[in-house]
Amino acid sequence: MNYKSVFRFLIIVPILLIFVAVGLDLVYPFPESVSAYYGGLAGAGFSQTYYAYLFVAIAAFIADLCLFFFVRNSREIWVILMVIFFILAASMLELTIMSPLSIVLVQVAWLMAGIKISMAYLSPPIRDLF
Predict the structure, then answer these.
(1) If residue 59 lies in a helix (H) or strand (E), which one and from where to where?
(2) Tens of pLDDT along 56-104?
(3) Is the Cα torsion angle 41, 52, 65, 101 positive or negative in sign?
(4) pLDDT tens for residues 11-68?
(5) Residue 98 to residue 24: CA distance in whole angstroms
(6) Using CB atoms within 10 A of its CB, is residue 67 exposed (0-12), middle (13-18) or buried (19+)?
(7) What is the pLDDT of residue 121?
């Protein structure tokens, strides 16, 4: 595998891991209290921070696709979106409850994202494509 293929692998696999983690959470048998919590939130309405969090997450996926095609400035946009994502996640009022396997998948995806962005900035064969 060449550098370009490895870089693209590091883009696609974390996205797939996130989707698998969300899918696992949809079928995971959470206790009734968790289901009631999310049901109450859905009925009362989520906070504006939650909607901003979802918007930034979708924008980050789009930025990932731009990284896949080596679009100019997509590295900087992705990093900025991730900073905003974590700030919003830390300030969000709603709880995020995940199954144990989903937590592992998301953390592996974040480790791979760290390798990806390191390659995008520090690996000359990849850095020069931007």
Answers:
(1) helix 48-68
(2) 999 999 999 999 999 999 999 999 999 999 999 888 877 778 888 999 9
(3) negative
(4) 999 999 999 999 998 888 888 877 788 778 777 778 888 889 899 999 999 999 999 9
(5) 9
(6) buried
(7) 93
- The backbone torsions φ and ψ at residue 93, rounded to the nearest 5 degrees and listed phi first, read -75, -35
Contact 102, 28 (CB under 8 A): yes
- The percent helix, strand, coil of the chain (3-state, each to 5) is 80, 0, 20
Does residue 49 contact residue 88 with C-beta atoms inside 8 Å?
Answer: yes
Give the pLDDT score at 114.
93
Following DSSP, what letter does each residue of 65-106 receive, concatenated? HHHHTT-TTHHHHHHHHHHHHHHHHHH-SS-----HHHHHHH
Which residue pairs, CB below 8 angstroms and at least 24 apart, start in 40-44?
Answer: 41/94
Give whole-number Cα distances, 89 to 38, 79, 80, 86, 104, in Å.
17, 15, 14, 5, 18
